[in-house]
Fold each of these.
Amino acid sequence: MSKLSPKLQFLGSTIRGAALAVSAAALAGCVAQVRVAGPPPPAVYVAPAVVDVQVREAPPPLPDYDQPACPEDGYLWTPGYWAWGGSGYYWVPGTWVQPPRVGVLWTPGYWGFVGGVYAFHTGYWGPHVGFYGGVNYGFGYVGTGFAGGVWAGNSFSYNRAVTNINVTVVHNTYNTTVINNVTVNKVSYNGGTGGTIAAPTPQERQAAQEPHVPPTPLQQQHVQQAAKNPALFAHANGGHPAIAATPRPAAFNAPGVVGARGGQGPATNRPQNQSGNPGQAVNPAQTQNRPQVANQTASQNPASKPNPGKKPNQQKKNQKAKPHPKKPPEKEDGGR
């Protein structure tokens, strides 16, 4: 095979160099395209598909309690619910919470009976209120949607008809009567025997597809603190937790804590005992057996109060020897 002339060799080298340059430019263009691509979209938190726990025991009925007053503008109400712990159900008190950002609403979590077990669907923040099992949590959460207030621009306006608002503290309010089309009861779960009969509406299904935000760190701390309080477990309080609602998350001992009706009530709201300590509850059974009560009963009847300086027989004689109304005249006759 004959050798190529120097001119042809130079031409071949030039062509190969141009081809490599074109390939490098094309590769550089591809790399540039990858580098300028925008960041991947953030992960979407779709809470309705998130099942926190599954158990075979139905949750207790919802306790009956009053709502604490809204502490200040911008706080939104999150209703209380029964959560599952290692030794059974415990109550997570309802509380007022600052939302993670403007424009979002709270969809409460709920228990649903599916496949022979009760599964808890975690609550979440989103542009619209989604499905929460048809459970009537009260205070605007009547089983579907939310009637406790609306966002008006960057401010939240509260409906005084269904929420506890102090107008001297919170100024963005309105008053609209809420028509409740859901049966008013204390059922705390959806489906199964005795549960609510409700299915997601088209609007709630659409809300489930929207971007969601998980509970705030303060909300998570609120749940963790409730799980550590033995008095909040249903087997200890009989379904009537002493801390049913709080004015702020994790503020279990703050002024304004509300206890469930039918229960003993929170320690901060209990009457003071004889030592004057409001944190100690007075047991009525123990109060009846206290010596002080017996002394009070005796003091109400002076005739039955014993005199430690005299013998019992002398006390009886003295009681018989009490002067009668006619005695003074007899003494006057005897002195003549």
Note: The helical segments are 6-36, 202-208, 217-227, 234-237, 284-288, 291-299, 312-320, 327-334.
Amino acid sequence: MNANPALLSLSDIASQAHEKVQLDFEHVNPVISVMQGMRKAGIPADVMTIDCLASKKRILIVLHDQLPDVIRYQFTSSDVEPGDDYEQSASADVTSEAVYGWIKDYFTS
């Protein structure tokens, strides 16, 4: 992974949320992936996915270089192409507790 500070921070946040989810919900074993393929295609952004393999639910998170203080995300499915409807939050508001809440609310519903 490159040294993009926003991506490194988000990875740490997601890892902390993942640990708590595994303690609280044994049947939800999220898989976290970081992809930098958009950069290889010339798009200045990084992507993180958090997947629930059993339900195929996915949380898609995009970090755009042009929006350094914003995290865009979408609740979708791993077997469906993502749409254009993203929610967004200030980077400072996306804590491990917030990501834990996303996982808990979306993957356990």
Note: The chain has a mean pLDDT of 93.
Amino acid sequence: MLALACFGFSLVVGHTAPGQAQAKQVYDRAVQLEREGNYPASLSLLWEAAGLAPHDADIQNRLGEALERIGALDAAGAAYRMAVQERPEFRKASNNLILALVKVGKGTEAVDRARALVTDDPKDPDRYFTLGLAQSEQNIDDAIASFRRTLDLAPRHTLARYNLALVLNRSDHVSESIEELKRALASDPQPQIHYTIGVIYWHQGNFDSAVTELKAAIAQQPNYADAHYTLGSVLKSRKDWKAAADALRRAIALRPDSATHYTLAQVLQQSGDKAGAKAEFAESERLRQRTEADQRASVWTAVGVERLEAGDAAGSIDLFQRAVAASDQYAPAFYQMGRALQRLGKAPEAREAFSRAAKLNPGLVAPAIHK
């Protein structure tokens, strides 16, 4: 729920890549870890794969997506640029780059790139959809026009209708927004749509309708942590303390984070459970500090990877040590330190670092090439 401050670094490496086959081995493992939801381990291996094969567009695009997930938007944009540079027709990477540019405030470039795609094929609805996304932070009227053009070309384009609803809501056309979301539900009943309708009703003060929509989202996707959290927040607004606490505890079971523990603490406090509230406030603060420490560690690790892939293994060690000092529970820092130590020929120290990484995150077992 917390976003890491953007930072930038070049992903172009300065040493000779050991080979595509080795990179593929690391990349395939990263993809598997991502599918399992082990995102920190996946990111660490994607950094490694990108160093081994810096001109592989698929690796660079996947790395960009992983970096974007932790909020490292400038770094993500650099990876997407590399992917597009290596394979100009790579539409997914091109779309990812456009959206990353929007997020870092480079909306003009994003819109220009999206318009160029539309010019190349003005009958492709997905290109108008991407243009609409790029315009959403620049000119809402233009975004609405692009989403409507997408729907003219492809009436069942659920994402276009969903994003049209979002921009309509932002421009205070709330009733139109809800109408578009209900049309989207009719053609493609997704839990995210129920969730968004629920949030809009909540902000309008229509708590009963909000609860109905959020429960519909949960019925379709029982592990939808955001829906459980928001349902708890709505029930808190309705002063239904017991039901709110139950929903928030379900959210915590799915994804424990500082904000959810804090909201649960407020609910318990209001319901008269002072001891329970105190414990939840303490856990909220512990998780907040842990998250901030891991975010600092991720920044130092990212900068260390840049240094390592530029050929300065010795210099990268200091940066990885700073990452570990920020959070001695951040497994990717130990893994990358192992790679740096290995390049310096310090095999015993490298094995120790890899071992520490694996203890913290079992997904980060050093591959055979490191043993």
Note: The domain at 7-104 is CATH 1.25.40.10 (Serine Threonine Protein Phosphatase 5, Tetratricopeptide repeat).
